[in-house]
Design brief:
The chain has about 260 residues and is mainly β. The chain has 2 domains: about 100 residues, Immunoglobulin-like (Sandwich), CATH 2.60.40.10; about 100 residues, Sandwich (Immunoglobulin-like), CATH 2.60.40.10. It contains 1 helix and 17 strands. The strands form 4 sheets. Strands 3, 4, 5, 7, 8 and 9 form a 6-stranded antiparallel beta sheet that branches. A hairpin with a 7-residue loop joins strand 1 and strand 2. The longest helix is centred in the first third of the chain and has 17 residues. It is rod-shaped. The termini are far apart. The N terminus and C terminus are likely disordered.
Length: about 260
C-alpha cells in the first residue's frame, strides 16, 4: 500500500484558542489516518546575530529578529548554544545547552563561556501546540567567537639540549596545551637566572632559544611563559642547566664554593 503524504498549512489563526483547536484537529487527523503525515504550522525561521564582547572574554551577545511568517502568536524564544571549537585549536562535539526567554525579548547574553573559542547558536520561536505543548520553528544557526585573555598554563616540557659551546645553552619547549592558551600565543617571555639573580630577560617568537655569552661551568635556571594579545600567562617551573667546561679546563676546579 502506498503511503500518501499531505502538508497542511495554517494561514490566519491569531488567537491561542484558534491555534490549539487547529493543532488538535491535525493531531486527530494524523491519529485516524496513520499513513498521513501532518506538518504542524510553526513560525518561520528566526535570523540570529552573534557578537563578542571585547572586554568580557567569557560572554557572547545574541540578538535576533522575529520570523517574517507567523501563523500563531509567538509566546517564547528558545536559545540553544554549544561549544564547537575550543581555543581555536580543537573541535568539540558537545550537546546544546538551552535557555528560554519571553516573546518580548530580542537579545540575550551568554555567560560563563570559554575564551578564544567558537560557539554555535540557534534561536527558535515557539507557539502553543497540542495540549499546551510548545511548537518551535527550526532556527537558523549563527556562530560567534569569544575574545582572548591571559593564558592559564605555561609552555610544557622544557628541555636543555647539550651543545659543545661552553658559553652557550639551548632550550626548547612545547607550546601551551590547547584549552589553556585563551588566545593566540605571539611570543614567549623567558628569564635566565644565576644564583637567583636575573642574567637575561627578553622575548622570542619561536619555542626555542640558544643563549650565548655565558660563563663556563656555571649552573643557570631557565623559566618561560607565553604571551598573547590578552596578556602574559604564568611562568613555567624552573629548569636547571649547566654550561660545559671550556677547552682543557675542568669544571671541577671552577665550581663555586658553598658556605
Amino acid at each position: 500500500m502506498h503511503k500518501v503524504y499531505y502538508i497542511l498549512t495554517l494561514l490566519s489563526f491569531f488567537t491561542r484558542k484558534n491555534c490549539d483547536t487547529v493543532f488538535k484537529h491535525q493531531f486527530d487527523y494524523f491519529y485516524l489516518y496513520r499513513h498521513v503525515l501532518i506538518v504542524i504550522s510553526a513560525p518561520g525561521e528566526v535570523s540570529v546575530n552573534v557578537e563578542d564582547e571585547r572586554s568580557k572574554p567569557t560572554k557572547l551577545f545574541i540578538s535576533w529578529s522575529a520570523p517574517r511568517v507567523v501563523y500563531c502568536p509567538i509566546f517564547q524564544y528558545r536559545i540553544e548554544y554549544k561549544l564547537t571549537q575550543l581555543d581555536q585549536c580543537q573541535d568539540q562535539g558537545n550537546e546544546f545547552e538551552v535557555s528560554v526567554v519571553d516573546n518580548t525579548e530580542k537579545e540575550y547574553t551568554l555567560s560563563e563561556l570559554t575564551p578564544f573559542s567558537t560557539y554555535a547558536v540557534v534561536v527558535s520561536a515557539g507557539v502553543d501546540g497540542i495540549n499546551d505543548n510548545t511548537v518551535f520553528t527550526p532556527g537558523l544557526v549563527g556562530f560567534g567567537n569569544t575574545t582572548f585573555t591571559d593564558a592559564t598554563a605555561p609552555p610544557q616540557n622544557i628541555i636543555n639540549h647539550q651543545i659543545e659551546d661552553a658559553r652557550s645553552l639551548k632550550f626548547i619547549w612545547e607550546e601551551i596545551p590547547c584549552g589553556d592558551r585563551r588566545g593566540p600565543i605571539v611570543k614567549y617571555n623567558y628569564i635566565l637566572e644565576m644564583n637567583s639573580s636575573i642574567v637575561i630577560q627578553t622575548t622570542v617568537v619561536k619555542p626555542s632559544k640558544v643563549i650565548k655569552d655565558l660563563i663556563p661551568c656555571t649552573t643557570y635556571t631557565f623559566i618561560v611563559s607565553g604571551k598573547g594579545p590578552g596578556g602574559q600567562g604564568p611562568f613555567s617551573d624552573g629548569i636547571e642547566a649547566r654550561t660545559n667546561a671550556e677547552g682543557s679546563i675542568s669544571c671541577l676546579f671552577l665550581r663555586p664554593a658553598t658556605h
